Records
---
Amino acid sequence: MSKDIVLAVDLNHHESWDAAVPEAVGIARAKGARIHLVVVVPDFGMAMVSDFFPPDFERKALERAWDELHKLAEEKMPEDVEWQAHVAHGDIAEELLRVTGEVGAAMIVMASHPVDHVRHFLVGSQAERIVARSPVSVLVVRQ
C-alpha cells in the first residue's frame, strides 16, 4: 500500500494550508510518505459562462496556480519531507479524487472552510463530496 498523501490546497484561502500543512507533514514524517500538493482550478461549468472571460483566461489561471503552489511549497514544506506539486482543472472533487487515484495515495488531507450557509445550500461542501466519494481515508482539518 502506498504511503503517499494528497494535500488539497485552496490558494484563495490561506487558512486551508495553514491548518492542513502541519497535519500532512506530521503524518508524512511518521509514515515516511511523500506529499502531493494539489490545487484544482475550477472550470467554467458552462460554455456560455466562458464567453464573459478573455480567451486565455483559463491558461493564465493555471499558470498562476502553478507558480503560487510552488511558492507556497517552497515556503511551507520542510526540507525533510518529499513533495510533488499538481495543478488540475475541472470539478474540484472529481479532480482531487482523480489525482489521488493517479498517484496511488493512501490518504487525503484537506481543511474545511467556514460554513457559508447560502453557498452550502446551493452547491454543497467540497469536503463532504470528497469524503463521501473517496476510496481512501480523508482527514478534514477544522480551522
---
Amino acid sequence: MKLNSTVALTLILLVLMLGAGFVSGMWGFALGYEALKGVNQPDTRPTARGKNNQDTAPGTQKLVFLKEADILKSVRVRIQQANQQKQTKAQNTDEDSNNSAKSVAETQNSPSSVVNAAFPIISQDRAVTLAIRSVRQQPGSLLLDVSLKNEGSQTIKFLYSFLDVTDNQGRPLSASAEGLPGELPPNGQTFSGTVSIPATVLDGTDKVSLTLTDYPDQQLKLQTAGIPVR
C-alpha cells in the first residue's frame, strides 16, 4: 500500500513538471514572437536589380556587341580632337610669342629719353658753349642731343672726326656727329645736332664723357663728363 502511494506521488510530480515546462515554453515562444513581430530577414538572394526594381538573375542580362566600324569611328574622332587641341595650343603659344616680340620691337623702335636732373650738361671755353641737352635710345645706338653756340668775335672751325668720347673707365668709344656746323659763326646763334654712339660699345657703361676741340689750332677745348646713358 505504501509503495503504491509513493509511485502515485512520483507520477503526479512528473506530470506537474512536464506541464510546468510546457507552459513555460509556450509562454517564452509567445514573448519572442511578439518581440520579433515586424522584423524581416534580409534578401540575400544572388539577384540583380533591373529597371523598375525588378529582380534580374545574374547571367540573364542582354549583351550588346559593338560594331567594329563604330569603334574605329570613335577612335578617329578622339584622335582628331586630340590633334585639334594640340594645334590650338601651339597657335596660342605662337600668338603669345609674336605679341611679345612685337611689344619688344615696338619698345625698341620708339626712342626714349633718359630723364635726369643733371641735364643740360654745359661746357664753356673762350665764349663757346657746348651743351648736352638729353640722351635718347634708339635701335642699335644711343643719341646725345647737343648744341653749340659762339658768343665770341671769331669763327670757330670744328672737325668732328676728332670728337673724343670715352666711357666711365676712360676707354675710347666710336661716335659720329650729325647736324652740327663745321664752322661756328660768332653771332650767338644756337646750332643743334646729335652725337650717335653704337649700343654695342656701351655694354656695362653707365656714363660717358665728350671732348671737342677746334681745328686745326686745337686751342679751344670743350669737355663734358659724367653724361648718364642709363
---
Amino acid sequence: MKKIFISAVFALVILASCKKDLSTNAGDQQPAITSNATSASGNPTFNLEVILRGDGEAFGLIKFRQDNDAAKIISLDTWVRDLAPGHSYLLQRAVDAINVIDGNCTSTSWLTLGKGLIPQAILTNDKGTGREDLWRSIAAIPTGSNFDIHFRVIDAVTMAVVLTSDCYEYTVR
C-alpha cells in the first residue's frame, strides 16, 4: 500500500511539473522531484531533468548537466525503477539536426551512452532499481549549438524499448 501511495504522489508531482530538480535520497537512491520554472523563457537550456516513462510503473530520470568548462563534458546521472530485477539496460539518445529547434524530435539515429565513448549498462538490483553515472564529451560541437533531443532506455539483451522521454531542447555551453 505504501508503494502505491508513493507512486501516486510521484505521478501527481510529475504531471504538475514542467521541469524537475533532482536530489538523491537514502535507500534505493531515488531522486526527489520538486517543481521549478520551465526553460520556455528563452534562456539557453544547458541542463535538463529528463523524465523517462514506460509501461505500468516503470520510470526513470536523467540529471543531464554540462559544466561551464573547456572540456565540454555532459554528465548523465541516470536512475531507473520498476524494471526487471537483476537485469541490464542501456541509455540511448537521438538528436535532430543542429540548430533546427521545433520541439518535435524526429531523429531515430540512436546513440548508446556510457562512460565517454564506451557504452555502459545500467544494472538493476533485486527490486528493479538501477543507477549509473554516465558521461559524454561534446568537445567537437560548437558552443551555442541547439538541438532537439530525446532519450530511451532499452533492454540490453532483447533491445526492446522499456522507457522513453519527451522531446527536450538543449544548448551546448
---
Amino acid sequence: MASDRNIRSILIVGGGTAGWMAAAAFARILKDRYCSIRLVESEEIGTVGVGESTIPQIVTYNTMLGLDENDFVRKTQATFKLGIEFLDWTKPGKSYLHPFGPYGVDTDGISFHAYWLRMNRMGEAPDLGDYSLQTVAARNGKFMRPQKNAQNSPLAYIAYAFQFDAVLYARYLREYALARGVVRTEGKIVDVALNGETGFIDSVTLEGGEVIEADLFIDCSGFRGLLIEQALKTGYEDWTQWLPCDRAAAVPCESVGEPTPFTRATAREAGWQWRIPLQHRMGNGYVYSSQYTSDEEAADTLLSNLEGKPLAEPRILRFVTGRRKKFWNKNCVALGLASGFMEPLESTSIHLVQSGIAKLMALFPDRDFSPVDIERYNRRAIWEVERVRDFLILHYKANERDGQPFWDYCRNTPTTDHLQEKLEIFQAHGRVFREADELFNDTSWFSVLVGQNVKAERYDPLADIVSPDELRARMNSIRSVIQRCAEVMPTHRQFIAQNCAAGPHPLQ
C-alpha cells in the first residue's frame, strides 16, 4: 500500500536545458501516476543556451529516456564528439587532445600509463595520443559508434558524446516531457511564499495572479537562483580565486570545412575560446577575466578568430564561478546554473544537471524530507563539483605562458589541497588515482598532466617488470592496432550523412 506521505506534486521553475532535462527524467521514471509534474517558464526571460558540448555520460541519460539516437541527433543538429583539443595551453603552437576512452591496455595489473612513462624516459615514446583510438580518429576526422561484434578490438569500446544546439535540445526534451504528462505553464514568477513554521516553500505566484503550490520544488531559474537563493537565502561559495574568468562572449558563425568530431579550446590572452561544430553552424565563445581584458576587447578577439562569417552579434554573459552552499535546501533542489557555475572548459555543465537528477532519484524524498537524505545529497554533490573544479584548475595551473599577466596569475596562485596532492603524487612516480565517484578518471587526469607538460620525476617501478625489448614490442603492437582501427572508420561527415543528417544539405 502506498504511503500517504509520498510526494504528490513537483514544480520545476525555469525551462532551458536543466528544466527540461529534469522534466523529461521525472516523466520517464515517475510517470504521471506517481505525482503531478509541472514546469513554469517565461519565453520573455529566455535561457542562456550556449552550452553545446557534452561528455559520454549523456549517452546513459538519453538511453534511460529511451531516445532514438539518430532522431535525437537530427532534431538537435548534433555532431559527435570524441574528446577536447587544447591548443596553446602550455605554449603557443602546442596542442593535445583529451580523449574519451583509455590509452593503450593495462597489463598484468600495471597501468599503461606507467609503461608509457618508462618509454618516454627511454626517449622512445611516440605521442601519447597515438595510443588512443579516440585521439587518432579525431585527428583524422573519423567516427563510428562502438562495434559490439568487434570482440576485443578497440572498435568495440568507442566512447563518445555530442555537440548540439542547446536550445534545440531543450525543445526536444520539452516535446518528450509534454507527451508524457508534464504540464507547462507560461509565466513569470513574482513572489515565493515560505511556510512561517518550517521555512519550506509553500507556493509561487505568477504575474497574472495564479498561485501554484507543490511539495517538491526544482530550481532551474539560472544564475538568479529564484528559489534557492532569492527565497531561501542559501548562500554562495565563490571560487574566483582559483578560476578567475568571470565573463563569456558567445557568437555562432557559419560552418567552414569538415566538421571535427571534437571540441576545441584555444588559450587566449585573458582566457580561452571554444569552438563547437554543429550540423548547421559553429558555436564559438571566449571565456575571459574582466580583470585582464574589457568586454569590447573580448568581443573583438572572438570575432577576429572565427573561422566563418558571424551569424549574430556577440552576447556577453557575466558569472561568478562557484556553488551554492547547499544544492538541496528544505524542499528545494537546485539544478544547472541555479546550483552554481563552472566554465564549460571540460563540457561538464549538462552532466552536472544529469548527475543532480540521478542523485535526487536515488534519494527521492517523501513529504517529511528526511534531513539525513538531504545531507547525503549535498555531501555527494559538493564532493563531485569540487573535484570537477580541481580538474579545471589544473588546466590553468599547469601553463607555461610566461610573461602574460592572466596566465602568470593562474600559474602562481596557490591551489586547493586536493589538487596539490594529485600533483605531488604524479610528480613523484607518474601515478594518478581516481577517488570515490569523482567524475574524471585516471585517463583524463593523465591526459591533461602529460599534455600540459607536468613532469614526473620517476615512473612506477613495477613497469620495469618487462624487458626493454618486450616493452617496445608491446607498445608498437598497441599503436599499430589503434592505427588500423582508425583507418577502417568512416569520416565524421560520412557517418552523419548516412545515419542522422538533419536535412538535405547536412553540415552546410
